[in-house]
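Hello again, I could really use a second opinion on something today. I've been staring at a protein lately and its backbone has me curious. Please have a think about how the structure follows from the sequence. I owe you a coffee for this, so here goes:
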Amino acid sequence: MTLVMILFLIFWLVCSILAYGFCFSFYQNKYPIAAKNDYIEDVFYALLLSLFGPVAIITVILMKQYKYGLKFR
């Protein structure tokens, strides 16, 4: 039981990290003119989305935000 919970948490963490990278990259690359001004907002929205783990990955795929690659800063 404990091993299953640990594996689930690792899976959730990996999904969250990928969702953050894809979402942040989407906002920074889709709107390059506003990227510098809205940097903090982009980080906030990416962090907010990443809390949902696997659901966030599904959202990223459905909204095709993965096309802009991964970006973490």
Summary: The chain has one domain: 2-68. The chain has a mean pLDDT of 91.
